[in-house]
Amino acid sequence: MSELSHIASHVQSVASAVAADDPIRESIAQAVRDVKATTPLAASFTNFVTINLVANAQLASGGTAAMSFLADDVIATSAISGADYVNVGTLLPFYREALDRIAHAFHESGHKWVLDPVAAGIGTERTAILTAFRDVPPTVIRGNASEIIALDAMWGLADAADDDAAVTRPAGVESVDEVDSALDAAVRLARHMASHRADGTAAVAVSGAVDLVTDGRDVYRLPGGSALMTKITGAGCSLGGVTATYLAVADPMTAALAASLLYNRAGEAAEARAEGPGSFQTHLLDALWTTTPEQVAGSPIDRTSVR
Amino acid sequence: MSELSHIASHVQSVASAVAADDPIRESIAQAVRDVKATTPLAASFTNFVTINLVANAQLASGGTAAMSFLADDVIATSAISGADYVNVGTLLPFYREALDRIAHAFHESGHKWVLDPVAAGIGTERTAILTAFRDVPPTVIRGNASEIIALDAMWGLADAADDDAAVTRPAGVESVDEVDSALDAAVRLARHMASHRADGTAAVAVSGAVDLVTDGRDVYRLPGGSALMTKITGAGCSLGGVTATYLAVADPMTAALAASLLYNRAGEAAEARAEGPGSFQTHLLDALWTTTPEQVAGSPIDRTSVR
Amino acid sequence: MSELSHIASHVQSVASAVAADDPIRESIAQAVRDVKATTPLAASFTNFVTINLVANAQLASGGTAAMSFLADDVIATSAISGADYVNVGTLLPFYREALDRIAHAFHESGHKWVLDPVAAGIGTERTAILTAFRDVPPTVIRGNASEIIALDAMWGLADAADDDAAVTRPAGVESVDEVDSALDAAVRLARHMASHRADGTAAVAVSGAVDLVTDGRDVYRLPGGSALMTKITGAGCSLGGVTATYLAVADPMTAALAASLLYNRAGEAAEARAEGPGSFQTHLLDALWTTTPEQVAGSPIDRTSVR
């Protein structure tokens, strides 16, 4: 962030707990219910490390899964999938061209998709792939703070942003954790993505000790979850996959909130029974299956406006 | 199925329970015993989503596993493997040429293999790969009803079939479930495959609520199993892999029956203890390990002749 | 081994139990502690079958994981990783060139890495890849006996070895198990690798009923572990990955010993609770997490000199 944008900062509105009867809670509950009722297909182009957990998490959450890597295959499948999940964790030589074709096809058809910019900033090929998404952007981005910050830099949004876009950090308040360090970047990314969608909706989810979800106007903070999430591979990836599952039946903000909240509640339930990371993963999949729409929607949620 | 073939239909023989002393039961028990006694190698060219579960299921059933994707590697390994498993779930650009070489090499050496035509009908590359297998066909096919129907259509077997080949559905009886909708296709595929094997044996297994296995002359229906199989990824793929494990020690029909029955019994045992899809998968692998040859061979089995 | 080298054999020193206060035990305990305290990154270029278990085992042991396949990506990541793990189990067409670039880059920067020569000897492409590592060798090799023997043959070390290098088998003692059949090869490989490292250190670990670890001067034998390790896929691969995790904080011999001992202790703990291979894998990951530095370092260890 340039010095100028710091100078131009406005005070962010005070964060407040989302009320029990706030409409967002019913939207979240409805998304969870709709997935269980309709088993929507969310297709994935994802890394080889956690591809199995992504599919199993989508199934355990109530959806269905299909994975493919050929542009031909992915684009054909998008005709029957409600949303796609794209994760750039493990790259092969042909991915740059394939993902470019896929992103353009999704953009032209208006197909919704979630991007997981894993390891953004490492490797020239990954940077080329992620940079090329700028003008045909995803509907939702889910990543950790450093990935969100790196993607924002790749897309040059800080430089291009007007003053309002750069002023999302509470004045005089240092980032309370690593997630908040990505707040400006997340807001800029969400606004950029929304400006490229016909319906003007988009969302960015930053995963961490307290998850942050924003559509560029409101910022939601979601406390809770389990530290054991960092001791299994694919907690973040599978959260991204489940976000695509919810995106198949809901708007971007609702989908991102529902998925992150489900993961926090399921993570807590799994940790309570786990004896280590092996049993934690087993219990996590069970808990994705058993956690109710009411438990997800009844979670603690804080909201701040950055309009 | 054309109207003509409907008109030409003959009444299928009445399905009847396979007797306790039917020789097929001893063949099945022997296959299960032989795998546990000889730990045969079944090699796989399979998708990235469930490759780990395929290998673990083969090991838990008593066999050993080796996975590879280079034609060079696969063909070299086939010299020491009893059978191969080929699954077209996730394709890479070089697969079409590699799988063509592999299928021809298997055909020339008479090497037995199981094809899992995952997502048959989706994507031009997959269709090209599957179509090319027509004249160098596998020994066993395992798929769900829609995949079996799609493959039958790709191979043009309905058009080429003589009257007898097209008349396998009980007259006046609508398909009782989705599996039965693939009965004609399964019978045609099995007959086509058998006609390309030196020993004239082949089998097709259609997985569903009631599994169906046919060699083109007899049709076996296998009730039971667990609905949780559809809530983990790779239940079908790993069943295909275990079918290859049994095929390493038995004829195609026995192998397909033994594997499907093992999965039904293990699925029931796993469901009885599962608290969700995570623990179901863990219990399933344990149950593949602990289910006895007698439990597999003593399963309920119905048989109908379509000779 | 040629007849000449048999004739030239010297008597190997008598194996003896490593004392409780032997410095190697403190080195091992310190490596286990350092991993838990510093969560080092070990990056992997590994096969698709067990890539998930490798990552989860590294995390459960206290480290972190990153997997990639593009040379660009792997070399960029090596700037922030303490060591790398390379496994040639499942090959793709571009691997030969990528791995050649990677091995040369690691050699030039002195970056430490573990090679897992899975299926060494099968397939011309794998042989070409492994042969090319001869002059830019890894820091640690972990494999089973047949793989170690095959790699030694590929590198032509038996022919090139001087008399001393070929005389590591106890005179008049037949190999007590398959692992010991690889003793000569392991010693030759370790000496060859050490001669290519600036600090002259290297190690070879041969996994089996009794694991064998050597740096070319001392031979350690590590009894125990679980036979169920052979009934899940990836026990060996994930041991290789965890060896890289320890290599990020320790010398090659200490890293190889610590990882193999951790696996033996965790395997025993997992077997005690397992009801089959499914629950064994879950318990194994839990036990990698809960096994203490003292339990690892306090393991039974035998040592023989082959200097």
Automatic annotation (TrEMBL), chains A, B, C:
> What keyword terms does UniProt attach to this protein?
ATP-binding, Kinase, Magnesium, Metal-binding, Nucleotide-binding, Thiamine biosynthesis, Transferase
Q: What is this protein called?
A: Hydroxyethylthiazole kinase
List the InterPro entries: Hyethyz_kinase (IPR000417), Ribokinase-like (IPR029056)
Q: HAMAP family from the xrefs?
A: Thz_kinase (MF_00228)
Residues that, per the record, bind ATP: R142, S207
Chemical reaction(s) catalysed: 5-(2-hydroxyethyl)-4-methylthiazole + ATP = 4-methyl-5-(2-phosphooxyethyl)-thiazole + ADP + H(+)
Mind listing the GO biological process terms from this record?
thiamine biosynthetic process; thiamine diphosphate biosynthetic process
Task performed by this protein: Catalyzes the phosphorylation of the hydroxyl group of 4-methyl-5-beta-hydroxyethylthiazole (THZ).
Q: Name one GO molecular function term.
A: ATP binding
Whether Magnesium counts among this entry's keywords is yes
- Say which species the protein is native to: Bifidobacterium samirii
| Keyword Magnesium among record annotations | yes
Question: Looking at the Swiss-Prot or TrEMBL record, what is one Pfam family this protein matches?
Answer: HK
Q: Which CDD domains match?
A: THZ_kinase (cd01170)
Q: In which pathway does it act?
A: Cofactor biosynthesis; thiamine diphosphate biosynthesis; 4-methyl-5-(2-phosphoethyl)-thiazole from 5-(2-hydroxyethyl)-4-methylthiazole: step 1/1
Residues binding substrate: M67, G234
Q: What's the cofactor?
A: Mg(2+)
**Sequence similarity:** Belongs to the Thz kinase family.
| EC nos | 2.7.1.50
Source species, domain of life: Bacteria
